Amino acid sequence: MGIFSILGLEKPDTLYYPGCMTYFKHKDNYEAYKKIFSKLGIKTVWSENIICCGLPAFEMGYEGEARKLARKKFELLKENGIKRIITNCPGCYKMFKQNYPEFLPDWNIEVADVWKLILEKLLNKPKLIKYKAEEKITYNDSCYLGRYCGIYNDPRKILELIGYSIEEICDSRENSICAGSCGSLVIINPDLADKIARQRLLQAKRTGAKKIIVASMNDYDLLKRNSEGLGIEVLELSSVLAKALNLKFSEEAKEENEEKKVIDIEQDKKREESIEENLK
After folding, report:
1. Which position has the higher pLDDT, 126 or 274?
2. In what order do the strands lie in the sheet with 164-166?
3. 4-7 and 44-47: which strand pairing?
4. What own/partner pairs with CB < 8 Å and gap ≥ 24 does 49-55 have?
5. Which tens digits make up the pLDDT trace of 196-212?
6. Contact by Cβ (8 Å): 104, 95
7. What residues are paired with 138 via a beta bridge?
8. What is the pLDDT of residue 244?
């Protein structure tokens, strides 16, 4: 399979593409999804040479660059015999499903709905669920997943199957308010993205739930870092699903990643201070 690694004994033609946020920043969730797919019998391959789907470039007006990335990715998929893609990233799903067919007239890769696939596996093999949460939570709809792709029910049904009772935010489903991570806003205007995220968290808190679960690593990343002191915990679907399936979700790795982020921020500040000093 060339640069691709195999999950399972057979040679699958389905690629698991985690998206840049999952792969580069949240490795623990990346590993969790691979374990989840293996447990559920979803045979995939994955690549350790991630090429961005091109969504950030496309959203910021660099359509030509986005098209080049799409073509490069498509050629790589064809070379490795990939016929189907699954991804946990709503933005990538939307890009593969809606934009790639527009960019590439010869695009013939099936883009499967991973949330529907997971739900079907859980319904067919309910004994795989070893732990039920028995807890009230709230859920945030990703703009890409909901507004763009019309996927609202399956992530909720997965959560209900593993024991969660969902208390809906006042603005949810088709009327959901953005959490702040879409449209590359985090890159273009991070302060505004943070304000929107905190507003969304306050809406979630008013449901009375102590936890909000998201099916988007980009939403998770933004909401998590804005949740301090608000009294509501932010979780991503893979962590609660891994727990339900009795799979080890590396909290230690997560803590190490958080410590590394703090160190990286401190190093960035020192570099900025050094640059400012040299410019004086």
Report:
1. 126
2. 164-166, 135-140, 211-214, 233-236
3. antiparallel
4. 49/3, 50/17, 50/18, 50/20, 50/23, 50/24, 51/76, 52/20, 53/17, 53/19, 53/20, 53/89, 53/91, 53/92, 53/95, 53/96, 54/95, 54/99, 55/91, 55/92, 55/94, 55/95, 55/99
5. 999 999 999 999 999 99
6. no
7. 212
8. 95
Which residue has tokens 């004086």?
A: 280
Distance CA 2, CA 183 (A): 33
Beta strands in 108-187 (DSSP E): 110-111, 135-140, 164-166
Contact 106, 178 (CB under 8 A): no
At CA 189, angle to CA 184 and CA 191, rounded to 5?
125
- Which tokens hold the place of 144? 């890409």
Q: Which two tokens stand for residue 147?
A: 């507004």
Amino acid at 130: K
Q: What is the mean pLDDT of residues 237-254?
A: 81
Look up the pTM and report it.
Answer: 0.83
Instruction: Give the bridge partners for 136, in sequence order.
Output: 165
